Give the backbone structure.
Amino acid sequence: MKDRRRIFLLFRLTGALAALLPAAQALRGQNLIEADPGRALSGTDLAVLEAREPRDDLPCRLTPLKPAVGFDLKFHAGYEVAVPMRELAGLENLLTVIFRVIPEGAPERARYFTQKIRVPSIEADAKGDAYLQGSFDLGEGVYQVGWLMRDRAERVCASFWRAEAALAPKEKDLVLTLPAGTAAAADEDEFADEPPAEKDYSNAPVSVKVLVNFAPQNSGAATLERADTAALVSILRTIQRDPRIARYSVVAFNLQQQRILYRQEFSDRIDFQSIGEALKGLQLGRVDFSRLQNRNSDAEFLGSLIQSEFKVRDGGAAPDGLIIAGPKAMLASGVPSNALREVGETEYPVFYLNYNLTPQLNPWRDSISQAVRYFKGLEFTISRPRELWSAVTEVVARIVKWKSGRRAADASIRGSHLVPPQ
C-alpha cells in the first residue's frame, strides 16, 4: 500500500552500499575526512558535535548498535535511525550526515566521516518511517560517538553515545586486525588485498590447498548475502595470515550451481580480487533443468570435485594439507562411494571448516563431513570468530606436525640406505 510504504536508507561508512529505496542517490560516499575538520566542516556542524546535546529539529530516533567482533577480527559498531516519512515529504531533499568517533582519553585520534544522500520526492500524506543504518569498525577500547544529520532546511537531528569494544574473557587471546583505540570506515571492498603478513618458517614452511564452497547459510536462498561472503572470505584471510604457511592453492566453487568459479594454483598469496570478480557471475536463482531431473547431480558434482582436487596431478606439487570450508551441504544423497574409493588414501591430512551459525539447529553430519570422515579428516564447526581463529591455529599446527613427521621418516629412510649391509 502506497501510503504505508517504507523507505530504507542503507549505507556503510565507506559509501559503497549507499542506497535509498525506492529511489535515492548518494552524491558521494561516506568519506573519512583526512583534512583538518575545522576547515572541512562548517562551524555550525562542529558546534553541534562539541555541544554534545541531542537535537531533534529534524525528528529522528537513533538506536546505537553494540560493538561486536566479526569473523574478520574487527569490532563492528553502528546505529539504526528512524525518520518519520512526513518529515521528508515534498520535493527532493538532501540529507547530510556527519559522524565523529573519539577514542576515550585520546581526542587527537578522533575520526570524522561525512556523506550526502539525495532523497526523492515524497507525497505529503506519506506515512510510516524511513530507516537509516550505518556501520563502522573499531579496535578494542572505549569511544565517544557523535552523530548528526541535517536536511536542506538546516534542521538537525543529533545523537551521542558511548561505545565500548571489549573482548570477552574467553576471547582475550584473539589477535584483532585493528589496533586498540582505532576507528575506521567499514570496508567497502571485502576482497581488497591486504599487506603481506610476517612469516615464520623456523619449522619449515607449509603449503595448503583450500576448497571453498561460496554458498549462503540458507541453502534455499536466491542470493549470496554479504554476511556469508564476508565470513567465507574471513576464513581465507585467517588462513593467509598464519605465519607458518608459505604457499596457497585455492578452488572457489558453488555446490548449488555445481560450478567451479575460480582456481588459483600454488602462490605465495591468495588473489582475493580475482575471487571477488569470479563471484560476480554467480546466479543462485537460476538452475539448469537437467540438474532438476537428476536429484543426485549435486552429490555427483561433489564427488567429481573431490576426485579431481584430492589427487595430485601428474607433475604437480602435493600440498602439505587440504582444507574444505563452507556452510553445511545437506544433499539428498552422500558422495558416491566409488568416487571416494578412486581417490584412495590421501598423501596429506584433510580438514573441514564448517561455517555454521546455528549448529544447535542442525547438528547432523552433512555430505562434505561424511566425505572428509572417509579420508580420516577432522571437522571444525565455525559459528563464532574465536572458533575460526582457534580452528585455523590447530589445523596449521597439525599440518606442521605431520610434515615434520614425514620429513623425519624420509630422512630415516635415506639414512638407512647409507648403512652398508653386515
Observations:
- The first helix runs from residue 37 to 40.
